[in-house]
Amino acid sequence: MSAASPTANHNIEQRIDAVLTAQYWRDGAVLIRGAVEPHWIERLGHGVEQNIANPSERGRIWDRDDHGGVMFFDCQVWQQNKDYRDFVEQSALAEITGRLMGSSRVNFFYDAIFTRTRGNQFRTPFHQDEPYWSVQGFDTCSVWMPLVPVEKKSALEFVRGSHRWPQKFRQINFGGLTQDQRDQVVFSETDGEPFPDIEGNREQYDILSWDMQPGDIACFNGRIIHGGSGNLAPDRDLKVFNTQWAGDDVRIKFRPQGMDPDHSAVMTAAGLQPGDRLSGELYPQLWSR
Ligand SMILES: O=C(O)CCC(=O)C(=O)O
Questions:
Q1: What is the distance in A from the centroid of ligand 1 to the CA of 251?
Q2: What is the mean pLDDT of residues 265-281?
Q3: Which of 110, 136, 236, 272 qualifies as a cystine partner to 267, CB 3.0-4.6 A?
Q4: What digits encode the pLDDT tens for the residues 76-102?
């Protein structure tokens, strides 16, 4: 897999060209090097510190290891955290994701924060995102953005092309791993076939991941099978700011398996119904072609 040019280039239209857009459609995940300027990485680093010190009501520890290390998760913090908010509203990500998806306009869906202290081994199990979401559609783009250098063995991994597989899979119950009630979801036999054992049969799958530096972004479709990360060397920590963006065909859908962030309550309170496009202050449109 070739990455986009590492040279700083503020002409987004040129960088997100037909080749990269076709690659995003085909593989479901692409790396764009140097997409985010250093001043944003600094702002987000500050934002993450504030976030860890003052988690939202959704913030929680996903893993505590034997050495006192933790993996921390939070989401939908952008409206309370000025660093996150400015980044969401002013950085190039809305345009980058809109162009990658080939969409005519883009709404922000939500932010998620994944941090691991030095040496933490917790690996996120392989899964797809869309089955847990309160929206459905092919035109989605999540941006996984490490704020510190990350080795390939510790970066998020993607099963190339799996966003276009026809099968529907029963997703995993994150609550079984994190022991947090908010992560409990039950996918039954009617929700699809058993999830493939990717980890146990890695050689049978085409798995993408990259060594990444702050400023590099991994952009991926909400239907792609992904997981991994963690597995940190003893002297390495990991801080990831993740954002999800919705393009043309995305519509609201409430699901019994909506894991936190299950947006059905806030969407209903905001007057949004299944079948609607995302809109309003919670899900602002931030780019149009
Ligand atoms: O960074 C991680 O461990 C998990 C990331 C993830 O699953 C996601 O961004 O959807």
A1: 22
A2: 97
A3: 272
A4: 999 999 999 999 999 999 999 999 999
CA of 19 to the centre of ligand 1 (A): 26
Domain range for residue 27? 12-279
Q: Residues near ligand 1 with C-beta < 6 Å?
A: 114, 124, 129, 142, 144, 156, 226, 229, 240, 242
Place of tokens 């036999």: 189
Asked, for residue 6, whether it belongs to a domain, the answer is: no
Give residue-wise pLDDT tens across range 147-201: 999 999 999 999 999 999 999 999 888 877 778 777 777 778 888 999 999 999 9
Q: Which atom of ligand 1 is nearest to the CA of 122?
A: 3
| Structural domains in the chain (count) | 1
Classify residue 289: in a domain, yes or no.
Answer: no
CATH code for the domain of 242: 2.60.120.620
Does 128 fall in a domain? yes
Say how far residue 18 (Cα) sits from the centre of its chain.
23
Q: Model pTM?
A: 0.94
